[in-house]
Write a structure and sequence with these properties.
The protein starts with a strand and ends with a helix. By secondary structure, the chain is an alpha+beta fold. A hairpin with a 2-residue loop joins strand 2 and strand 3.
């Protein structure tokens, strides 16, 4: 089960840093900053192998947060 935590400015700043320094997509980086799956933190690369429908749902959940 995925849980999306409410995010703050620091999460956006960290996601921008990840996007700039590591070349991650900003939204993937923001998802990694705010989502846990089965209580476990994730990294942007986890989204690469996830079912596309689930990634789209996570994107919508974070964008609507």
């Amino acid at each position: 089960m995925a849980t999306v935590a409410p995010f703050k400015g620091r999460h956006i700043r960290l996601a921008r840093t990840m996007a700039r320094d590591a070349g991650h997509d900003f939204l993937f980086a923001l998802i990694a900053q705010t989502v846990t799956i089965d209580g476990r933190a994730i990294v942007p690369e986890d989204l690469d192998d996830m079912d596309g429908h689930d990634v789209v749902k996570l994107q919508a959940a974070v964008e609507g947060n």
